[in-house]
Structure prediction request, 135 residues.
Amino acid sequence: MDEDVDLWLPRKAGRKRKGQSATKMATLGRFSKVLLRSSLTQTRRQLAAAAAEGGEHSAKTWKILTFIVALPGVAVCMLNTFLKEQHHEHTQPEFVPYSHLRIRSKRFPWGDGNKTLFHNPHVNALPDGYEGHDE
Prediction:
């Protein structure tokens, strides 16, 4: 097979043989492993030094950030959601009986067998429509 490929590819001046390129690739692989290993060792040393120096200082910083930034941020998000929900109208979307949705090939093992485990009658439609609506 290799001879067939060599017949179709013209030889260029200075083109190296397969053995030489494989040796270069192996050397490059070993060199990259050495660089990666030294980089990981240096990173571990830096992290260990940082942990040994200011552990109590960093804990205090994170505690302050939690109470000054994180908790008020969560409170503002909760307030925003609550206020937007106050002005939102709760209307059900129109039921369209698509044939590929709400397929019940087997009954559910709980309840009446037609409703999912976390069924919400205001949001989730059954195969024949929403509950409590005679349309």
